[in-house]
Design a protein that fits this description.
The chain is of the alpha+beta class. It contains eight helices and six strands. Among the domains are: about 1-105 and about 135-155, no CATH class; about 230-260, no CATH class. One of its GO terms (molecular function) is small GTPase binding.
Length: about 260
């Protein structure tokens, strides 16, 4: 378990994640920092879901800034896949049995009753709320399907967000599709790593993803730097007044700290 979140039910806890594989093994100008990438790909840790939970894929990005000021950009698609290990499913069932026992004990203690008379002495409201909690937040190995979070990530020298997003989504569709793509998955990964060049300044580049072509454009030397992030999301997240205030602070060269969960 990652962090002190034992009070949470097992499906709401987060667990330690790790990098399963990365390609290529290393790049001279951009050494792979396994701990940093692991933490930035899954900042909240590994999480589990059941068929009753929302499991829509989510995309997020991150920046690694090195001591010399150089930057690399990461684009991450997180999705959930079914847990096939019986051992992990059994462990989750055990965690729930332990958690439920602790919940009953705490309800019993708050109701000032003895363990012998638990069923008859628990306050009706406590029992009802506990039953609801277990109904909506439970795991039964014989009834539920367990899913675990997994992510695929592209690390790039420039923030081509839209191109990376489209490629990751196509790659995810290929992984989860019943119909395999025209070529092996390794072919598409090799292509984007070794065969798709960085577009020269002021030029556009069109390359083929798994299913559809993808276009990325690099600004010229006299243009504004590449900003491929959708401005609409900034307005939705901060609101108009907050964004104007942040922009004012930027113009006044004030120090700005954005804090978020």
């Amino acid at each position: 378990v990652a962090g002190e979140n034992f009070d949470q039910s097992p499906l709401r806890r987060t667990f330690k994640s790790k990098v399963l594989a990365h390609y290529p093994q290393n790049i001279e100008w951009n050494p792979f920092d396994q701990d940093a990438v692991n933490m930035l790909c899954m900042p909240k840790g590994l999480s589990f879901r059941t068929q009753a939970d929302n499991r829509d894929p989510q995309l997020h990005s991150f920046i690694i800034t090195r001591e010399d000021g150089s930057r690399t950009y990461g684009f991450v698609l997180t999705f959930f896949e079914e847990v096939t290990s019986k051992q992990i499913c059994t462990a989750m069932q055990t965690l729930y049995q332990m958690h439920n026992a602790e919940q009953y004990s705490s309800v019993c203690a708050s109701s000032s009753c003895s363990m012998d008379s638990l069923a008859s002495s628990i306050d009706e409201g406590d029992a009802t709320s506990l039953a609801k909690l277990q109904q909506y937040n439970s795991y039964d190995i014989s009834r539920d399907t367990l899913y675990v979070s997994k992510c695929i990530c592209l690390i790039t020298p420039l923030p081509f967000m839209q191109a990376c997003k489209k490629f990751l989504i196509q790659l995810y569709k290929a992984v989860t599709s019943q119909q395999p793509p025209p070529l092996p998955l390794e072919s598409y990964i090799h292509n984007i790593l070794y065969e798709v060049p960085l577009p020269p300044p002021g030029r556009s580049l069109k390359f083929y993803g798994v299913y559809e072509p993808i276009i990325c454009q690099r600004p010229g030397p006299n243009e504004l730097p590449l900003s491929d992030y959708p401005l609409r999301e900034v307005f939705e997240l901060l609101g108009l007044e907050n964004l104007v205030q942040v922009f004012t602070c930027v113009l006044l060269e004030m120090q700005i700290l954005l804090y978020s969960q």
